[in-house]
C-alpha cells in the first residue's frame, strides 16, 4: 500500500457525532423542563415539540434553499389526515401511521415540488397560499371519506404499562410529550446533518444564486424537488402528531397555522436551527406571558384577545426591518462584535 | 337559462371586483417587484373606517371618499415606512442572496397583514358586521319579471368601469402615467432621464391602495365585514393576476373577469364548497399551460 496518501477523514462523521449529541441534549432538556411544569405547560411543551418539526421544514425550505411556502399548514393537514385515516379506517398502530404519514406527505411534496420547481418567489408564495386554503376544503367536499367539518377523532392512547412501571405514574400531558419527543429529536438530527452535508451545500448554492449553481453542475429543478420532498415529509409528520392531540379536522389546520409557522422561523432566524427552536418557544409561550402581564391591568377583553397576535405581528415586522436574520443572526452579530 | 343568466351577471359583478384587486397587485408588482399580501388587509382596514363613519351618521358618500383617500395613504405609508427601506438596504448579508430579496418583502407584507388584522380586532371588536350599499340589492324588475341582475351589481360594474377608464387615461395620456410605465420597464434608465423613480413607485402603491380599498367597499355589502372577510379576495385576485400575466395591467383586469365567471359558474352549477378547489386547479392549470399569463410576455416574467 502506498504510504504517502492518507485517506481524508470525512467531515460528516464528526458532524454526525455533534448532531447526535445535540439531539439527545434536546430530548433531555424537554424531559427535564416537563418535570418542572404543571399539566398545562406540559401540553404546551408537547405543542412546541410538535410544531418544532414543522418549523424545521421551513428552515429547510426557506432558510436553506430559499423557497417560500405559505402552505406548510396544508401539508400538515395531508399528514394529519393520512395518519388519522390509516388508524381509524385500517386500524393501523399509531406509530406506524406516523411513519407512513411522512411518506404520504413526502409523496404529496413530490407533486408540489414538480410544480414549485417552475416557480419562485411570489409565484410560489401565492400558489402555496391558495393551497393552504384549498386543501382543508377538500375534507369538506368529500365529506363521506374525510368526515367533513366534524373531523376524525384520534388520540395518543394510554401509556403502556411497562413505561409506567419504569418511571412511575404518567399523566396524559406527559404521555403526549413522550410520544412526540422522539420524533422531534430524530427530526433535529436529520435537519442538522442535512444542512452540513453536500446536499445542504447544494441547496444553499441554489438559494444564493441559481445561475452560478447551475454553472457548477447543480440540477436546479431536481434540487428544488428534493427540498420540497424533505420539507413536506417533516411537515406531514408534524401534522400527524398535531392531529393526534385529539382531532383531525379542517379547523385544526387553518391558513393562520401556516403563517404562524413562518413567523416562528423568521423571528428565530430563518437560517438557524437554534433560531427555529427559539422562535417556536416564542410563538407558543408568548400568548401565555402576555396574559400573565395583563392579568393585573384592567383592559377591555377585545384588546386582550388580539394583543398576542398584534405583538407577534409587530415582532415579525421589527425582525424583518431591523435584522432579517432573526434572533440567531442578532446573537451571531453580537458575538462577532465582541471578538473585534 | 335563468341560472345561466344569474351566473353570468353575478360573475360579471364579482369579476369586476376581482379585476380591481388583481389590478392593485399588478401595479405594485410592476413598480416594486413585490406581491403585496397585505393589500386586502389594508382594504379591510379602510372599509372599517368607512363603516365607523357611517355609524357616526356621516353620509355613505363621505365615508366612501374618505375610505379611498385612507387607502391611498395606507398604500403610500407601507411603501415609505417599510418596503423602500427594506429593498434599498444593501449591507445585509441575507439580502445578498437572490431568493431572499423576493422572499423578505413577502414576509414583511404578511407582518403588515397580521398587524392590521389585530388592530381592526382591537378597534372594532372583530365581530362580523354588515356594510351598507348605496343602492338596493333587489333584482331589477321590468314589469312583473325579475331580471337576473340586481341594482347593486350594476353599481359595482359601473364603479369598476369608471375606475378602469380613469386608470387607462392616467397611464396613456398623462406624464405621470408615462413615468410610471417607464420606471416599471427600466428603473435605471428612467432615473437617468430625470424622473424620481422612488416617488413614482410610492404613487403606484397609493393607486394600488385606492383600488383595493374600492374593492373592499364594493364587496362587503354582500359578504359582511370582519377582519378575515377579504382574505379570500386576495387569493382570488392573486390567481387572476397570475392568469392574466403578473406584469400586464390589461391582463390582470381580464384575469379578474375570467375568475369571476369561473367562480360564479362553479357556484351555480356545482356547489359552493368546490370553489376553493376550483381556484387551486385553475391556478395550477394556468401556471402549467401558460406560465407567463394570457397577456404577459415571456421575457419580463421574473421566474
TrEMBL record, chain A:
GO terms for cellular component: plasma membrane. Pfam families: BPD_transp_2 (PF02653). SUPFAM superfamilies: ABC transporter involved in vitamin B12 uptake, BtuC (SSF81345). It is a multi-pass membrane protein. The keyword Transmembrane applies. The chain crosses the membrane at residues 20-37, 43-61, 94-116, 123-142, 175-194, 225-244, 264-286, 306-322. Keywords: Cell membrane, Membrane, Transmembrane, Transmembrane helix. Its main location: membrane. One of its GO terms (molecular function) is branched-chain amino acid transmembrane transporter activity. It is found in: Cell membrane. InterPro entries: ABC_BtuC-like, ABC_transp_permease, LivM-like. This is Unannotated protein. It comes from freshwater metagenome.
From TrEMBL, chain B:
Keywords: Amino-acid transport, Cell membrane, Membrane, Transmembrane, Transmembrane helix, Transport. The chain crosses the membrane at residues 58-82, 103-126, 146-171, 232-263, 275-295. Its main location: membrane. It is a multi-pass membrane protein. It comes from freshwater metagenome. It is found in: Cell membrane. GO terms for cellular component: plasma membrane. One of its GO terms (biological process) is amino acid transport. This is Unannotated protein. Belongs to the binding-protein-dependent transport system permease family. LivHM subfamily. GO terms for molecular function: transmembrane transporter activity.
